[in-house]
Request: fold
Amino acid sequence: MSQFRIPGKGRVDHAETVRFAFDGREFTGLRGDTVASALLAHGVHLMGRSFKYHRPRGPVTADSAEPNALIGTSRGPGRFEPNTRATVQELREGLMCESQNRLGSLSFDLGAVNDALHPLFPAGFYYKTFMWPRSFWDKLYEPVIRRAAGLGRAPSEVDPDRYASRYLHTDLLVVGAGPSGLMAALEAARAGARVTLVDENPEMGGALRSDPGIEIAGQPAWDWLDGALAELESLGVRLMNRTTAIGYYHQNMVGLCEKLTDHLDTIPENAPRERMWRVRATRVVLAQGALEKPLVFHGNDRPGVMLAGAAQTYLHRYGVKVGDRAVIVTSHDSAYHAAFDLAEAGTKIVAIVDTRATPEEDLRAEARARGIEVLTGHTVTDTKGRLRVASVTVNPVEGGRIGAARLLHCDCLLMSGGWTPSLHLFSHTKGSLQWDEESRTFLPGRMTEDCHIAGAGRGLWGYGEALADGAKAGAEAATALGKKAGATPLAVAHDRPGTGESHKELPTNRKSSRVRAFIDFQNDVTAKDIRLAVREGMRSIEHVKRYTTNGMATDQGKMSNINGLMIAADAVGKAPPEVGLTTFRPPYTPTTFGAFAGYHKGATFEVTRRTPIDAWAEANGAVFEPVSLWRRAWYFPQGGEDMEAAVARECLATRASVGIFDASTLGKIEVAGPDAVEFMNRMYTNPWTKLAPGRCRYGVLLGEDGYIRDDGVIGRLGSDLFHVTTTTGGAARVLNMMEDYLQTEWPDLDVWLTSTTEQWATVALNGPKAREVLVGLVEGCDISAEAFPHMSVAECRVAGFPARLFRLSFTGELGFEINVPARHGLALWEALMQAGEPHGITAYGTETMHVLRTEKGFIIVGQDTDGTVTPEDAGLGWAIGKAKPDFVGKRSLARPDLVAPGRKQLVGLLTEDGAVKLEEGAQIVLDPGQPKPMKMVGHVTSSYHSATLGRSIAMALIEGGRDREGETVHVPMPEGVVRAKITSTAFYDPDGDRLKL
Amino acid sequence: MMTNQTHDFTLAEATARVRIDELAPVSRFSLRVRPAQAATLGRALGLDLPDRIGRIAEAQGRTALCLGPDEWLICAPEAARDAILAAARDAYEAAPHSLTEISDREISYRISGPAAQELLTIACPRDLDLLEPGRAVRTVFDTVQVVLWRDGPQEFRLDVWRSFAPHVRALLEIGQAELAAGL
Reply:
């Protein structure tokens, strides 16, 4: 049995020991222990070193607010986690953990030299000390600071664990399963509501788990808890332990992080480590209780100094005495009860040092009866003990004067500065806080969400009040849900109500430069730092926080914010609410990245859309590129070809014979109805009325601003039916835009839109031999040049499949696009490959498609246009139906700046040296000799090496470009200025003869 | 509905709690028509088109699901495809509409078993307690638009656009393994 463990006491299983290691030393604890409670049972308080001064530290709490006892834990390769709170981490068999922030061993830390040098490291010392000389920053200061900064050691391997996600809908979500939360859940569940009750602890019950002497409804507290939990379960309440409500978002969306496996000895296969719950609750009850505040005095951070409530929890929940000789220092009644409980467990209470002059007589009487000395109106001026507190110096305070010192020997110092309602989640809702002058704390004010706050979370104290308030909140929530509810009163015996006083730092007679009174233990911020910040001009608490880093550690100032505020307010000379409280933000406690990422990692990181022909491309060695969410075949290297060689081969083969291309990703929209042609006339710039069924047209879509938004070939399949194609990336956007106009501007039109992008697989066949390859596979359509000219469309059968066959070209060659129902896409592709074999049919990817279209001067929306390019700018003025009364963007095209001369126009660019390929995005100037900054007249939009032309080609947007055709411009690059001539964009077959085959 | 493809899992427990089956293709159409003409078109198709979103009408193996005030999803055996198209064409004069075939646009999965509803909550933000058997809704699964049918208390169907289906399937299988793990 461990020295400080009390046999049979607590919620731990005394029959089951669990082995673990801390800094390489083997320990045993009990099932149900945390690392902290197990170490304390062995008398180990020293668990870490502080962040800045490397001071020895031990746990100051027994819960998730712990700032000191941060450890590294490991569950094997990739499963190292820094900054785990030892007070939260449950023991499991074989757990390996280590202390942090030390150079050398935990008990002899070389970094502690910082502590001796502390006058050199006041608040804001980075800003002052490392300013000069400037050149030292990069090489010396920053690397040193970076090495010294940070808590713990970052994991370096990929996290192999699974993380899960769930959505949950519930009528009522109750956060916190202490007395208030349990009663709220009970009342609402009894009224018939769907209730979810969450608590971050392994076991529900909250403060009652640390106060078993309370009697509720005639039962000992823990018996009552057993009954309440059983009733909740029988009422169908979802009980979630080890689950932290991390954030409270809009419209009662609450994020929960559930820990599933960190406490298990063996983990079931495929089990997730944590699960993020996104809960939509009709009502929320926040019953998060209150956090105990430390007192601020010199040496309040030594191992062995902890909150009185924490000592009470270690005693009752874990059966662990935190020491044999305790001094209590308090400004609140609650610490008396901790002292009495510890005394009963055999800890010698050296004295209760009360900062108040006249504490409650009942408590003093009980202390007397137990033989405990109470020192009223006292302060603490010093503590001693290097790795564990060994003595406390206390002094009476009378009329502001510090009296004679008295030395009290002890092995633990238990403090209580009163309690702060835990308002973090309420703060997330942007609910307002109100300063309560009487209790000197912030309480919840105006609500912005459908929530209730119950119990200690709104400043109530004592179990009777907490239970009643929880019942009331539960009944109110049930009523709001339309249920009939009534709050049942419960009798509480041996209740422990209490009050307290709130302090700034305790008075002292030490020289102020010699006082090390810590506020933020995790960031090593002292009271002196706060006062320094105010002296140096910080007035807002937000500035004080950032200057001192108070409350900026992973605990978000759960213990330090209020004390920091009290001292800052005192230093500024204003009331605390005028100085303000900093904003709490999610998550409530540190949460793993994995829990946020959930399933979005590895193969399911993001949707990857694949076409029906993707499998063939993969089997044939395609290199892929992402295009919006799709992955598309980029090029098909053969026999060790690089990209340039593969693309050159694909281009030449297509121009010489026939190439085949998977165009399935093109957006497709079916526009159908009696007003289809009218709708098309209004949406696109082109005229559609005279387009006969069976014919196609290249359409340009503008925004209201007159700039090009999308383009594509559109086929008319009947008087009332159009097959619209869009760019791959624009498919969803274009459909949304069309629906928007239809529903909001033209609800009178009888026309309907349906996305058919994925209904069809689309294969493009291009090249002089395209017809020869296709003709044998087509049924029900004469595809001869005469019967089926360029820009035709027909419904027929291809390779035995029902098809929509287009004759069109994005390459300048004779071209067809064959659409078949998607399930047949791969079979169609294979049939075409087979039919094309005698002609050396060549599969090509998106890169070759880009080269071929650039050779023809065909634009890609989003590459050659950037949202500020009009049809006229792009050389597409011919696509505008001049006689049409209106179309989207028409009015804007007449705006003065859109018709002004000198707009950037799309032109061709040929470098003087055809071997030089321009960079896409490169800026263009007219005179490279002009002084900097030079006047840039445009930029390169597309640039490729053309195997067909044996040289590089490019397109560019240049001011007044078309009038400058034949002029030489200059492209300044890091290697030198490139000279290029402005040309037409039709680099290849300018007369389009090859389309006419 | 006939099962086309069943993915067997090594974990027997996985399928005991929830099964994921890809279903054989059926004929599917997106029907758009003004509410005033819906009855006329419904008569032509042999269906009483429901007028509340999420409601389903069934007759002679044909199903109509109301997805919007002027939008229905029509499902039928593949053999009925041509007859449906012809009947709609005949009614076009009296009830102008759009009946667009989307049979190949989507893949359907059946999710069934005691944990079927729980499995869907890994990525579907709707309150599935409110989705009664015999109803269906358009919703999202993860980031993907789906039509979610509830065929029974423990039986759901998901219609997913073809290229998004592998992503949805992968998530469902991760969830299935997670449910089998029992945590």
Observations:
- The longest strand of chain A covers residues 163-175.
